[in-house]
Amino acid sequence: MTDPAALSAVRFRGVSRHFGATRAVDGVDLDIAPGAFFAMLGPSGSGKTTCLRLIAGFEQPDAGSIEIFGAPMTGVPPYRRSVNTVFQDYALFPHMTVGANVAYGPMVRGVPRAEREARARELLALVALSGFEDRRPAQLSGGQRQRVALARALINEPKVLLLDEPLGALDLKLREQMQVELKSLQRRLGITFVFVTHDQSEALSMADRIAVFNEGRIVQVGAPDEVYERPQTRFVADFVGGSNVVEPDAAERLGLPRGLYSLRPEKIRLGEIGFAGTVETTLYQGAQRRVVVAVGSDRLAVVAPAERGPLPVGSAVRLFVPPGAAHRMEG
Amino acid sequence: MAALPIDGRDGALRRLSDRLVARPRLLVALFLAPPLLWLGVVYLGSLVALLAQSFFSIDEFSGLIVREWTLKTYGELFRPANLDIIGRTVTMAALVTLVGAVIAFPIAYYAARYARGRTKALFYLAVMLPLWSSYLVRVYAWKLILAREGILAWATERTGTTPLLDAWLALPVVGGPSLSISYTGTFLVFLYLWLPFMILPIQAALERVPGSLLEASADLGARPGQTLRKVILPLALPGVVAGSIFTFALTLGDYITPQIVGSSTLYIGQAVYTLQGTAGNIPLAAAFSVVPIAIMVGYLAVAKRMGAFDAL
């Protein structure tokens, strides 16, 4: 947890947002440190996007308070917040050129034409789209549109940049490239980035802090390795990286003290010693194989390096759980 | 079950459908042929015939049509009496369109952005319901509403606002002996009649504007008024243009409403009606009907230049 005395870029205290009977956000406390690359991770309907919209001001909380750099945001409309958003569908204005889209922020603030056009050119250069000023959004590829949306959101020099599933619409190669670019952009600008994603690998690789959402609440906040290695709940263990959740009974059978454990598939070793089991399913993933092994009545997912050779269904294997591989969870 | 072959039936219809599936172009041609024939031959044909007629003239003594190419008939349009008719009709159509757009926009905006489920169904019903009853019945109903002894006069009397109504009626041009015998009356009825044709296209255009665009605009610092001017209106413009084409063209061509409610002055529609009927002056009637076409072409050209169709 961050030092409560330090000024948070974004601070939620007991924030709730209900839609009819649905508690989209249910009593959330949240502190995002200035300059952080913060990920809100969770399945769809977990409240992460609503939290983002609460920060942007598109939604107002039904209960609780939100502060941005110490300033209370109650009743402050989106156009008076120093926060900008990169929308999931990019939301580029189809009737304007790329240049006009990027210059929109300064334009509505009354910045003279020459000045805002020069500024738009700077921002387009920043996202490597120099010379695209006169194109229409419809003439751009998905990756280019995303860069335009990024440039447009950055032109007002926001204190916090919000990104709603920013890479969701891009193909894998472009997504990986944009992950690197976003990360380095954030480091260069020093702006607090808050991004929403349902992709745990994206959150792990980009963020320096992750909040895991489930059913309108934050279930765990921490650094990526912390969330990955030491999940606090069954949900986090399962959602972040598909860990084995070992129930108390099964734990005893594996020789662990009775309790609920998270056991990462890559920590289990297939070898000559350990528990005897049978391969139930096997999934080839290039560098590795993901195998489900039945040990008695228990099922464990195991990741084996591909060079270990094929593991046909039904073959007998032995599982070794190194000491300390299992992480005990609260519940 | 297993004994049934996959192609159990082998009728002529089946063979036809197989052939059509294999040749999508033929299918499209079959679908398009009737409307294209209708548009190309019947509609465009009559339009050309009409245009041709307008370049003939009438012999003023015999009343017979002289089939020689001349611009004489178009010259007649510029007589003061005829210019008067054109000016009156165009002004009326423009006012109905303008005021119609101003009234329709908030209604369409509400329907597109806020109405959901049952409210939306109610909206459609409310907009379309008047179209279910006869046009003539509605116009006559308005005559009764607006008449000297009508419900409106009664209401002003009961609310003590009769002086207001009288003051309006005492105004030059828009006034008259009663609302049902004034330009104001004609205007109100036109406005009522064509409003659905303005609301629906605007609503359809607004419906296509993603909510995220409005949020993006606010996010970037635009106040609601700026979002309206810079994002909503430009994107709704094709709808407004479509709606204004409807209302403008419908008002330009109407010859019944001004006959029932109004100050018994002529509009283009009535002029065409009289000229081709009792007067037997087909060339002038044709020339008159070219006026709305010319105006619409000019209007569309201006709208296109203003970028009304860029977002299509």
From TrEMBL, chain A:
GO molecular function: ATP binding; ATP hydrolysis activity; transmembrane transporter activity
Annotated protein name in UniProt: Putative spermidine/putrescine transport system ATP-binding protein
Gene source species: Prosthecomicrobium pneumaticum
Keyword Calcium: no
Alphabetical list of Pfam families matching this protein: ABC_tran, TOBE_2
Ranges where the ABC transporter domain occurs: 10-240
Keywords assigned: ATP-binding, Nucleotide-binding, Transport
Keyword Transmembrane: no
From TrEMBL, chain B:
First-listed, main subcellular location of the protein, grouped into a coarse class: membrane
One GO cellular component, as annotated: plasma membrane
Annotated ABC transmembrane type-1 domain residues: 86-301
Keywords: Cell membrane, Membrane, Transmembrane, Transmembrane helix, Transport
Pfam families reported in the protein's UniProt record: BPD_transp_1
Segments passing through the bilayer: 26-52, 85-109, 121-141, 181-200, 231-252, 282-302
Protein name as it appears in the record: Putative spermidine/putrescine transport system permease protein
Biological source species: Prosthecomicrobium pneumaticum
